[in-house]
Amino acid sequence: MGSEDNCTNIKYSNDCLKLINNTFQKLLDLDSINYQIELEKSLEEIGSFFDLDRIYIYYFSKDPTFMQIESQWNKIGISPKRETQEEEVVYTLPWLIRKIKSNNFVAINNLEEFPAEAIFEVEAFLKEGVKAFLIIPLRSENKLTGFVGYESLSKSVAWEEDEIEVLRDISKAFSYTRSKILKEKSYEAIINGQAILLNNSESQIWALSNVTSYVTANEAHAKFFGKKKSDLEYQDLYDIFDIETANKFSENNWELFQKNEPGEKELEIKNFQGENRLLKIKSKPERDESGNIKYLVCTADDITEQRLAETELYKAKEQAEAASIAKGQFLANMSHEIRTPMNGIFGFLELLESTNLSLEQKEFIREAKSASEVLLHIINDILDFSKIEAGKLTMEKIGFNLRNTIEDAVSLLVPKAAEKGLELYTMIKAGVPEEVVGDPSRLRQILNNLISNAVKFTKHGEISITADYLGEENGLAVLNFEVMDTGIGIHKGNINKIFQSFIQADASTTRKYGGTGLGLAISSELVKMMGGEIRVKSTLGKGSTFEFDVKLKVVKGASQEKFAFEKLDGVNILVVDDNTNNRKIVSSYLQGTGFKIFEAKDAASAITTILSNANTKNKISIAIIDYKMPDMNAYELATTLKTMPFTKDIKLILLASLTQKGDARIAKEHGFSSYLGKPVRRDDLLGCIAIVLGLKKEDKEEKQVITKHIVKEIKNTLKPRILLVEDNVMNSKIVISMLKTHNMTCDVAVDGCEALKAVSEKDYDIVFMDCQMPIMDGYECTSKIRLLEGDKKHTIIIAMTANAMEGDLEKCIESGMDDYISKPINFDIMFSMIEANTKDRGLVDGYNNMIDNNIHYLIEGTGLEKDDAKELLEEYIKYLPDLLRGIKESIDNNDFDKLVDLTHELKGSSGTLRVVSIYKLAVKLEEAASKKETDECVRLFDEIKDLFH
User: In the prediction, which pLDDT does 491 show?
Assistant: First the structure.
């Protein structure tokens, strides 16, 4: 080979074939140790044979954008291709690399043959002094792995086709040899790695060729029997172990081979020290090409200590569970046993309080009731804490009105706050959703705990409860609650202690104020269960602010009661209260109604505001007046306003911090249209204003004064039918006596059997059912009552029990009861239940007249005997109260679809039984309901009710 004038044509001569054969023979026998030396010798032979200046081999790195010279050769006097072996960027020669990837070779006879785009390649080869070159790609398993470069630096070369073919054949030896070396190194690394893992594994590993023959084993398996690895490999069990051990192992191996699939088994066997050890053996068959088991690979772990620990743990678990059950039973029994006498204490104290007592005796009663309430609170805290501790306290997910829940929690503490002269107010900010899904009772419990503490630790000043909407997170509304007081505060060093169980900030606090120290710990856990956290900021002597967040699902589409305030024009409302916060709250509740709001801090300011606007467009229409003010009280202000010509027509609404029985009558006498307790409830306030403005019909019973949620004076006309099922004489006596104070009576059954008989013979409005009784308990009795009634009727049954543990409420509901009241009985709740479930007996007196007035029509129209006709009318009369009640509720709720259905039912039954007077009115009522004429429906329904009087 030489210049273009002196080129040599290379054919497959004997020398050429010999070179190819020697190269292949040499490279095929290489190992990783002498690979580089022999490779360089081969490159030298090839270079000398073809009269080349240098040869080099490049391989691509793991990152194919880099490459590195693995081996090179150059003539004496010619500089090497690279002085050092280091990674180079592939795309410094972009044209050449593209050609290598897409062609079997790249041959350049002289640099003038480079295309225009090969600017980087020309620059590189000129710099190195290259005159001509041939590049042969290297491939392994059809993948490009590198290339061989053959270069001439002294002359141009005319690369012949045969010459290129020979060099391509030789280059295949390079890629094959390197691939073989890499695989050997990889295999060696795997083998060495496996050996390291096997021999250092704490687990025993071995392989069997048959039931009694080892193939190999690791050091851990050999060590277990006090032997070396070499003692076991390719040996028979019976040549290694004693007969007992060999038999055990061979029997175990037989089962594993027979299974013919991955398996697991426990085997107790002696180690080299003669100790019985429990091995957990896992096996996996290794199969040959025909699917037969070639080896059985086994692994084993010594689980002796683990199993002993599990046994001990199981025993401990059983003991703990037994202790937990015993604890739960003890708590349940304790709750029942304590609550039963507590019910007697509360009941008799309340009865005693209603008798004629001296001031000193009344004070004694008050203290006794207070002490009893503290004891009951302690019992409830301990029960709740035990549920949390046992992980058995669960959260309900039910829909509820958030505003009502907050306001109910606050209202419960109003009397105690009023007794101490504390101002208690609630601010529910705009954006707080009305209807949510969650656990209302637990939310109320958190608020009760925080507000109760605020009242307890505050001597004077005020307590505020604020609710705010912070936004949405993962589809849940994040709600923030804040309870702020002006009480004794907490020392900075004690703030971290207060949420711990049985701990209060200061031990002296317990002695002075009482309490278990559980309330805040329970509240903290409940808040966590609701997806939030509780925090506190406090300054000693100045007060505390407790703040917590909860996450609740919002009920979409829920709406509050709306009144058409926007239709009214020129309605101006004056809020009179010496407390700035209370004025702001009332004003905020009236936002969005269209009213213009004025505020006055006392009676004098109120009168000035009213008079100054008397003859203007700002004339006051309604005044909302706080009872207690510094210059004169609400009654005195009302009397003053009624004597003035410009103010006597103003509608007055009274706000009072603490309501008493009879206050409604007194408020009415002083000219108030409505009477509400504080903290003010927005819905009650809007409802009162709606009635005052004629946007809402008021019940006849409400007359002109509306008092909601705080004072519910039992109506004298209420004559409920009550059955008390109670085996405890003391409890029965208390309930009967309390009912007498409200002019009520009840029947008494001492067990479930008597109750079942009583319900089957008489129609009761409500049954108060004790759960634990002899002969037949309350659960069984309720189930039998429901079976007896079927679909014909549904008697309201309220569980009245001293049990207050987890699942008691669910058990009551599952048995068919409608509600649950725990002992000691809260008689306000009991009377609310009675009032809510008592049928309107006002109609009963007119029922006999209804039968007498219509029976002859039925006899004439059907030809029935008088007794049969009377029996039909009596059945009709029995179901009539519920039907009329449903009609009234439909009218009140503007549910015209339901009203049409119920009125149609009334029309049909009345027409069939020839009760003409009701039938005619029912026809008209159905027509009015279809047209959605509310006022006409009310008028017609009043006419129907008048038929019974």
Answer: 82
How far is 928 from 936, CA to CA, in rounded Å?
A: 6
Q: Sheet with 106-108: list strands edge to edge.
A: 88-89, 66-74, 54-60, 143-152, 132-140, 106-108
> How far is residue 785's CA from residue 725's CA, in Å, rounded to a whole number?
13
The answer to whether 205 and 298 have CB atoms below 8 angstroms apart is: yes
Considering only CA atoms, which of 138, 161, 163, 139 is closest in space to residue 20? Answer: 163
> Which residue, 532, 523, 534, is CA-closest to 550?
532
First to last CA, the chain: 135
Q: Residue 547: beta bridge partners?
A: 482, 535
The tokens of 50 are what?
């073809």
CB distance 463 to 424 below 8 Å: yes
How does pLDDT run across 703-745, given as a tens digit for each residue? 445 444 333 333 434 578 899 999 888 888 888 888 888 888 8
User: In what helix (H) or strand (E) does residue 400 lie, and over which residues does it extend?
Assistant: strand 398-401
Would the pLDDT of 897 be above 70?
yes
**469 Cβ contact partners less than 8 Å away, ≥ 6 residues apart:** 429, 431, 432, 433, 477, 478, 479, 480
Buried b (16+ CB within 10 A) or exposed e, 315-332: eeeeeeeeeeeeebeebb
Q: What is the Cβ-side half-sphere exposure of residue 663, based on CA atoms within 13 angstroms?
A: 21
Instruction: Please state the pTM of the whole predicted model.
Output: 0.45
Q: Which residues lie closer than 8 Å to 304 by C-beta, 6 or more apart? A: 277, 278
Longest dimension (CA), the chain: 144
DSSP state of 213: B
